[in-house]
Specification:
The protein is of the alpha/beta class. The protein is 24% helix and 27% strand. It has helices spanning 11-22, 57-70, 120-124, 134-137, 153-162, 182-189, 284-304, and strands at residues 2-7, 28-30, 74-76, 81-85, 91-95, 101-108, 112-114, 130-131, 145-149, 168-172, 194-197, 200-208, 211-219, 225-229, 232-235, 239-241, 270-272. The radius of gyration is 21 Å and the shape is elongated.
Length: 307
């Protein structure tokens, strides 16, 4: 029987673990299939307080993990939650590989996964010009051209944000009009630094040892293939929250993000932290903040039980 089980080992999960461990709750972190979360796909993090010179994303999460371990956090590696049962206490987590785990409190910090087109070249240049977060990585592309793929509000917001840094932003969309709200679409279309590539799809990201150098796009009406010079490529086609294990148990929006009151779900002692319930900010620092909040709530809940 575990006092606190934390599902996920990104910024939210590890922050929750640090707080729970310092409260002598001996938390168990289920690392899942991507220990460290989305930050491990980022080569350099410059917007997290405490690292004035920036830090490699994987190195940063290694430091997070070491800090949690220092206070007594335990980690379950190479396994993930297949299904959760919150219908009765103690709560039960069915695992992919190991035995079921029973817990008095559960903090869900499974995050969200950025959607990509599925091109082999996207993976090849991941962290070397390929990104899914303009807020995280935009400052690395000062005075150079970049490409954004997508057609919704997110794509428009990312493209507009990138104009603060990039010399030119090419927004690639497969149709002849954007899916974004009219106000966002108008801002993107009329921005002097944004060029629209209508009726186009991304065929391949091209580059060399230095990283991305261009994006090959195809016009779906004429089949003409053009290579757009670019040092950065941003996928802005959405995120998929990692909530499959909680379907039918917890409230979710139409995309799959967990619905919570702050960090509280509808079940006592079950909390949601980080990107798994955040469709708006999706930043390491906001994830860490909700991880802290979830840990404090878990501690108070256990205290109310006389634990």
């Amino acid at each position: 029987m575990e006092n606190v089980v934390i599902i996920g080992a990104g910024a939210a999960g590890i922050t929750a673990a640090i707080y729970c461990a310092r409260a002598n709750l001996s938390p168990l972190v289920i690392e899942g299939m991507q220990p460290g979360g989305q930050l491990t796909t980022t080569t350099e993090v410059e917007n997290y307080p405490g690292f004035p010179d920036g830090i490699d994303g994987t190195e940063m999460m290694d430091k997070f993990r070491a800090q949690a371990e220092r206070f007594g956090t335990r980690f379950l590696q190479y396994d993930a939650v297949a299904k959760a049962d919150f219908s009765k206490k103690p709560y039960t987590l069915e695992m992919m590989a190991g035995d079921p785990i029973e817990a008095k409190t559960v903090i869900i910090a499974t995050g969200a996964t950025a959607k990509y087109l599925g091109l082999e070249s996207e993976q090849k240049f991941m962290g070397r010009g390929v990104s899914a977060c303009a807020t995280c990585d935009g400052a690395f592309y000062k005075d150079v051209p970049v490409v954004v793929v997508g057609g919704g509000d997110t794509a428009c917001e990312e493209a507009i944000f990138l104009t603060r840094f990039a010399s030119k932003v090419t927004l690639v969309h497969r149709r002849d009009e954007l899916r974004a709200s009219k106000i966002m679409a108008d801002r993107a279309i009329n921005h002097p630094k944004i060029e629209m590539a209508w009726n186009s799809t991304v065929e391949e990201i091209v580059g060399d040892d230095s990283g991305v150098t261009g994006v090959r796009i195809k016009n779906v009406k004429t089949d003409e293939i053009t290579e757009v010079p670019a040092i950065g490529y941003f996928s802005a086609i959405g995120h998929k929250p990692n909530t499959e294990a909680f379907e039918g148990q917890l409230e979710m929006d139409e995309v799959g993000y967990l619905i919570a009151d702050g960090v509280k779900t509808k079940y006592e002692g079950v909390y949601a932290a980080g990107d798994v319930s955040d469709a708006i900010y999706r930043q390491a620092v906001t994830a860490a903040g909700t991880g802290c909040a979830a840990a404090l709530e878990a501690e108070r809940y256990l205290e109310s039980l006389g634990e």
